[in-house]
Structures are given as structure tokens and as C-alpha cells.
Design a protein that fits this description.
Keywords: Acyltransferase, Transferase. GO terms for molecular function: acyltransferase activity. This is Acyltransferase. The protein has helices spanning 2-12, 14-24, 27-30, and strands at 35-37, 41-44, 51-53, 63-65, 80-84, 89-92, 96-98, 103-106, 111-114, 118-120, 125-128, 131-134, 138-140, 145-147, 168-170, 174-176, 181-183, 187-188, 193-194, 199-200, 209-213, 216-221. The protein is mainly β and 227 residues long. The strands form 3 sheets. It has a 9-stranded mixed beta sheet. The protein has a 7-stranded parallel beta sheet with strand order 2-5-8-11-14-17-20, with no helix packed on it. A hairpin with a 2-residue loop joins strand 21 (209-213) and strand 22.
């Protein structure tokens, strides 16, 4: 049944998939349809300047938006969002999959850059208005939020903005558990795990650790995890 549902979403989104591939890629690459989106995906600000695939290994369906099934038992909208304000960039460094119900959004000149083998579970979203970098082999659970800015400027008594945006950096081989929020200034080192429901607001520099809590802290070191 799941395979049938996936096939129907691919078939239903073929028009949008054709549009986005030929909009952002040269003909020789676009004809291979490396980007597949479902019919329930909202596209905005899509162009050669805003969407990039930064790898020579181009294959059909290597980037999928809103195609695959969410985790069993998770309830919520099936609509996905993928786009920019026309002045920002989303860069893919390889294979990427976002289950339906997620959001990839870059605005305000922001640059969202992702490595290879990155997967988002349902309702996870990246709201990039500054700079967000996600490494290779990164998994996000459901309802994860990455936000590198506050959304609105806040000024002091002299009228100076003090809540400036800061980059978010996720290293390689990282697992971000469900219901996690990563805010501006967050750095998650290679080989690490962020536990369920954590809120992270700072940079960590030790690799292979478990980070848990609100505010988040290291609770275990020298760990290994398998996908």
C-alpha cells in the first residue's frame, strides 16, 4: 500500500517535477528528473539562481520533496513547502529526502546548504534567513525546527538592532530526534545525537556526544549511532 501511495504522489506531481527541473537545471540534467516533488508541494521563488545541485552525480529522484510516507501514527497536514523569496539560495550536495508535510524555506538573502544523504521526517522545517549548513548523513525526526533568525528585529533604547541572526551548523553523521528545536548560533558536531524535545541555542564543540534538554547540554560522550 505504501509503495502504491508513493507511486501516486510521484505521478500526481509529474507536472511540478518537470517544471522545477527544467526551471533550475540545464536540459541534459533536467531530463533525468533529479528533483521529484508531490502535487501537494507548494513551490515559490524557484529559479537557476535560487536552487542549486552541487554534485556531479545526478540521478533520477535523488532529491524528493513530499513524496515518501511519514512515520506511522504521526498525524498532520500532507502539504509541503519548498522555495525562497527569490533572493536566497537552497543548495543540495547530494541525495535528499523530505517526507510530506515538511518545509524548506530560504528568505532575506539566506543560504541553506545541505550535504549528501540528508533525510527529514514529516513536519520538519528549516527556516533560513541567514546561513544554515547541514552535513552528510544527517537525519531529522518529525516536528524538528531549524531557525537561524528571530523573524523580527528587536531594538534597544538607542534604536540599534541587537537580535542579529547567527548561523546554524550541523556536522556529518548527526541524528536530530523528534520535536527538537535548533535556534540561531547552534552547532552540532560530527557523530552526535540530539535527544527528543531538546531546545538548542548554542555551539557545542565535542564530537560524538548526546545532547539533551531545554536548554540543551551534553549528557553522554564517546557515543556511536547507526542509521
Amino acid at each position: 500500500m505504501r509503495k502504491v501511495s508513493v507511486f501516486l504522489r510521484i505521478l500526481g506531481g509529474i507536472g511540478k517535477s518537470l517544471y522545477i527541473n527544467f526551471k533550475v537545471l540545464p536540459f541534459a540534467k533536467a531530463i533525468r528528473l533529479p528533483i521529484l516533488v508531490s502535487c501537494q508541494t507548494r513551490l515559490q521563488g524557484i529559479s537557476k539562481e535560487t536552487i542549486k545541485i552541487d554534485t556531479l552525480k545526478i540521478r533520477t529522484g535523488m532529491i524528493s520533496i513530499g513524496i515518501f510516507e511519514r512515520s506511522e501514527g504521526v498525524i498532520g497536514p500532507k502539504y509541503s513547502y519548498f522555495g525562497t523569496d527569490g533572493n536566497s539560495k537552497i543548495i543540495f550536495g547530494g541525495n535528499f529526502s523530505m517526507v510530506y508535510g515538511g518545509c524548506l524555506k530560504a528568505t532575506g538573502g539566506g543560504i541553506l546548504k545541505m550535504g549528501d544523504k540528508v533525510t527529514f521526517n514529516t513536519h520538519s522545517k528549516v527556516l533560513c534567513s541567514h546561513e544554515t549548513t547541514i552535513g552528510n548523513n544527517v537525519r531529522l525526526g518529525w516536528n524538528v525546527t531549524l531557525k537561524d533568525g528571530d523573524g523580527h528585529p528587536i531594538c534597544d533604547e538607542e534604536g540599534q538592532i541587537f537580535n542579529h541572526s547567527k548561523p546554524i551548523i550541523i556536522g556529518n553523521n548527526v541524528w536530530v530526534g523528534s520535536e527538537v528545536t535548533l535556534l540561531k548560533g547552534t552547532v552540532i558536531p560530527d557523530g552526535s545525537v540530539v535527544g527528543y524535545g531538546s531546545i538548542v541555542t548554542k555551539a557545542f564543540d565535542e564530537e560524538s556526544v548526546i545532547i539533551v534538554g531545554s536548554p540543551a547540554k551534553i549528557v553522554k560522550r564517546n557515543i556511536r549511532w547507526n542509521a
